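Aim 2 progress update. The chain analyzed this quarter is reproduced below.
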Amino acid sequence: MTSCRFHMRDFIAPQSVTASLTAESKSEILKQMAAMAATATGKDSHIIFDILWEREKLGTTGVGQGIAIPHGRIEGLDRVYGFFARLAKPVGFDSIDEKPVDLVFLLLAPESAGADHLHALAIVSRLLRDVKLCEQLRKAKNEGDLHRILSNAAEAEAA
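Predicted structure tokens:
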């Protein structure tokens, strides 16, 4: 992407959303989401996981209130990709508020993304700070509802 003016619909597809990811640990969450990302991006899931794990070593991406936003830059990506998972049950993620997470939004960007990576991170962060939106995500029935909530929230924010 060359423009910094883009919206969540530009980087999250309906098939990039899961409604009940089952995991017992932070590393398991990242492994499963890396596998999801590998399918969509064509990149190796082990490489994606390693990049995410290295980022976690710098400081947790568990931002509090049950939310984590792991992210990384991957060589050879053509654009920013987003993946969303609601966990079947909350899992410890070393979050800044020490609470387990149940909503995880993974962002992957090309190595050269620069401002686009930061802009996408800002969009996701801003949306997930909305307590009502997070309640809707936690109550959604399925992947389609989750994708619709995220897309509609992004549209409302852009308006």
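The longest strand covers residues 81-91. The chain has a mean pLDDT of 90. These observations will guide the mutagenesis experiments scheduled for the next reporting period.
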